Amino acid sequence: MADQIFKKIYLKVWRQKNAVSKGRFEKYTVENISSGLSFLEMLDILNNQLIEENKDPIAFDHDCREGICGACSLYINGRPHGPDDEVTTCQLHMRKFNDGDTITVEPWRAGAFPVIKDLIVDRNAFEKILQAGGFISVNTGGVPDANAIPVSPDDAEEAMDAAACIGCGACVAACKNSSAMLFVSAKVSHLMKLPQGKPEAKRRVLSMMAKMDELGFGSCSNTGACEAECPKKISITNIARLNREFLKAKFSE
Amino acid sequence: MSFISSDMRILESGAPEVPLADKWATHKADLRVVSPANKRKLDIIVVGTGLAGASAAASLAELGYNVKAFCYQDSPRRAHSISAQGGINAAKNYQNDNDSVFRLFYDTIKGGDFRAREASVYRLAEISPNIIDQCVAQGVPFGREYGGLLANRSFGGAQVSRTFFARGQTGQQLLLGAYQALNRQIAAKRVKMFSRHEMLDLVIIDGKARGIITRDLVTGEIMRFGAHSVVIATGGYGNVFYLSTNAMGSNGSAVWQCYKKGAYFANPCFVQIHPTCIPVHGEQQSKLTLMSESLRNDGRVWVPKNKADAEKLRKGEITPSDIPDTDRDFYLERRYPSYGNLVPRDVASRAAKERCDAGYGVNPEGKAVFLDFKYSIESMGRGYISTRYGNLFQMYEKITDVDPYKEPMMIYPAIHYTMGGSWVDYNLMTTIPGLYSVGEANFSDHGANRLGASALMQGLADGYFILPYTIGEYLADEIQTPPTDTDSPEFENAEMTVRERIKRLFSIQGTRPVDYFHKKLGHIMWDYVGMSRNAEGLTKAISLIREIREEFWKDVRITGEEDNLNPELEKALRVADFSEMAELIATDALERKESCGGHFREESVTEEGEAKRDDLNFSSVLCWEYMGEGEKPELHREDLAFENVILSQRSYK
């Protein structure tokens, strides 16, 4: 489809100098924006405009710009990653908006993800959860031949579905309780679906859940908002699996 | 050589002089090891946490070394290895199609157009099966057959199926495997992780790499870190071209800092241009997106046979489906019947450019060819395609707003990977003692053209299985060396230089943002140092690059603060380095007066228009030594001896 040129796009963007200062919305206008641009390319244009006006450009996380690194994390018009399904912010395109629209851009809002600057949040809590047990304890070397461990394609596919998580945090941002259950369940499912991950499945689930609670993420109340906003469509059936695994592990303690 | 100055050094790899298949085993037996008690006393810095860096950091920590790892992203999981799509090669011969270590070695040497080191490539092929074993043990969910065993696909430049994959997200899954191993070591307090930290200089004491200067990207704090050895794993420098498939933050600065401190830069002009990327769209585009090479397994590349049809396509008067099969030119199948759509990347890229330059391009800009899945969908069904490439098709549709199940994809070549990098010996050590370079950051195994699915293999081979052994050879002599004193004058000086550079950038207060210069630099590089190069263009490029560099240092404007998170400053530091690196790339391209792999000199072509090597004069690695600002770098070389393959004009016909 041919690109349109939007004469004006109005933006309300969250600006916050650093973690301790108070933030506020600032209003900006960008002109002559092609509908074929990505949302972040539109922000690039705004930023260069701000530099020309001698102002501090808007800070936002981004890197691969092809939807896989999980860095980008904008809350656009009340939705994590904005008004398109199964995309990260970097893959959101301006064609999803109309000429003259006012677009509100915020960082992820969650107690466990404090704002560092403007639209950038600290997602180190996710790192800590994974460090608590999101791995299989094997050292380099001394492992069996890859085909010595047959895995049914169905299990491999389910493990892959869960492993597709990019750790962006949209699930937490979408959840009214700021719960990290979808994120945790994705890693627990990925590893427990494979025979290699089974030996330490119990220890893993208990340790990751404890860390998640410790870091101040909320509880899951099954609204399903996380799955709806997940750019990789990680299913909440993983949460059911996590709960089952957790209970099993608790009872066998 | 076109000129041999008296100062030219001939570099030696240090691989043992025994038969090829025995080299690594012999070398390993000769390498010294450091006892567990002594490993605990030794500190290693690893910069970059992609496949090579994360695997190295985790493996070194498992061995007992104290590791400090650094990345500019907020998490090691975001390193650009994550974007690799199609797969990883390994000589497992699970398909019984007569694959072997030798065949993978040979394909890689040939694919690299005979410009890689035999010993290193053979070792890579030899180690490749272990990588798959390791990844499976870590829980990488590779694609499987019904019986539960691992599945394979084919990739360019090979006639066997040896590529292992996790859907179209192989890089992601392998990186998560390495990241999980790294996380386990972070939890065990064997690795101290510094995310959102960028290396800004290398510190050398008594001729040895002993530490780095970093900037905390959140607070702006300039910090000093000492160690007994430094490992660079910061990837490639493809972003010198501005538009590339690299991540926005991917940069060559660490490699460049090492170059300026004495690590020779090898083959900087060997840059890979990937044939299947989504074409450039307008002037405001920030990056290019790759469509995996694996798509060439099932997609057919074509342009119209008639120029008139191409013109109508460009104007939007007809659609691809209006062109009957008989009027389609499947030019790869026509020119290269035995490899067809699976020719190596450099060959496929040039063939696409040739058709577009001849007026057969199919998008409004005339710079795109079709990659068509109609035929596979007809014969094997939509389900077959969506299982294999579902995520790629979705990505294509989100970006272009075109459904590739219904219409062919439009693709065009783009900068993707850099084969050049820090020169390393057989131990992966640079010309600076104690400084190692792994993964894309080094120059090693891919010669003048990397085969698809080989980057992941090399990164992990370096990090899991080579460096953990070879670094012991150096560190065995360092067990008496106390922890590095970061108050030493060397650290003081390095920190001061970094601070002055930052101050200088802020003080310019020019009129233009960093992007302006980066884009301009990229245009010059693409036009004169891109897919097709000649002496006149390269000479012109060098003077244009100098002009931009000058303009940058006069007119760049950095807003924001020094002691706060400041992405503009980060970009400025990287682009300043790119503007120097660009000149070295062009200089190297000018020096190498032959065509080979991705380096295509118009002065050196066969009658059929293919790259023509000059083995007599250029069967070598060109290595550049920094001689100071404004000075011409000194040229050295490593001669490549081919004892196990016969040098031949590469043919995929």
Give the overall form of chain B.
globular
Number of helices of chain B: 18
Total number of beta strands of chain B = 19
What is the CATH first-level class name of the largest domain in chain A?
Mainly Alpha
CATH superfamily of the domain at 489-631 in chain B: Fumarate reductase/succinate dehydrogenase flavoprotein-like, C-terminal domain
Could you say which overall geometry of chain A the principal axes of the C-alpha atoms support? Answer: elongated
Name of the CATH superfamily of the largest domain in chain A: Alpha-helical ferredoxin
CATH class of the domain at 489-631 in chain B: Mainly Alpha
What is the chains' assembly state? heterodimer
The proportion of strand residues of chain A reads: 5-15%
Helix content percent band of chain A: 25-40%
Strand order, biggest sheet of chain B? Answer: 5-2-1-9-17
Tally of strands of chain A: 7
Q: How big a fraction of the residues of chain B is strand? A: 5-15%
SSE pattern of chain A: EEHEEEEEHHHHHHH
Q: Span between N and C termini of chain A?
A: 59 Å
CATH domain fold name of the domain at 489-631 in chain B: Methane Monooxygenase Hydroxylase, Chain G, domain 1
Number of helices of chain A: 8
CATH topology of the largest domain in chain A: Fumarate Reductase Iron-sulfur Protein, Chain B, domain 2
Q: Helix/strand/pairing class of chain A, anyone?
A: alpha+beta
Query: Biggest sheet of chain B, open or closed, and with what strands and sense?
Result: 5 strands, parallel
Could you write a compact summary of the structure shown?
The complex is a heterodimer of chains A (253) and B (653). Chain A is α+β, with helices and mostly antiparallel strands and 253 residues long.
Describe this structure in words.
- The complex is a heterodimer of chains A (253) and B (653).
- Chain A is of the alpha+beta class and 253 residues long.
- Chain A has helices at 39-52, 124-131, 153-163, 170-174, 181-192, 201-214, 225-229, 237-251, and strands spanning 5-15, 24-34, 75-76, 79-80, 102-106, 115-117, 120-121.
- In chain A, the strands form two sheets. In chain A, strands 2-1-5-3-4 form a five-stranded mixed beta sheet. Chain A has a two-stranded antiparallel sheet with strand order 6-7.
- In chain A, strand 6 and strand 7 (120-121) form a beta hairpin.
- In chain A, helix 2 runs antiparallel to helix 6 and helix 5 runs antiparallel to helix 6 (201-214).
- Chain A is elongated, with a radius of gyration of 20 Å.
- Among the domains of chain B are: 274-415, Flavocytochrome C3, Chain A, domain 1 (Alpha-Beta Complex); 489-631, Methane Monooxygenase Hydroxylase, Chain G, domain 1 (Up-down Bundle).
- Chain B contains 18 helices and 19 strands.
- Chain B has helices spanning 23-30, 36-39, 51-63, 101-111, 118-138, 170-187, 253-260, 307-315, 331-335, 345-360, 374-380, 382-400, 455-475, 489-508, 514-528, 535-555, 567-591, 615-618; strands at 43-47, 66-70, 88-89, 163-164, 191-194, 197-205, 208-216, 222-226, 229-232, 265-266, 271-277, 300-304, 328-329, 369-372, 409-418, 421-422, 435-437, 620-625, 634-639.
- In chain B, helix 5 (118-138) packs across helix 13, helix 11 packs antiparallel against helix 12 and helix 15 (514-528) runs parallel beside helix 17 (567-591).
- The chains are: A alpha+beta (253), B alpha+beta (653).
- At the A-B interface, helix 1, helix 2 and helix 3 of A face helix 3, helix 5, helix 6, helix 12 and helix 13 of B.
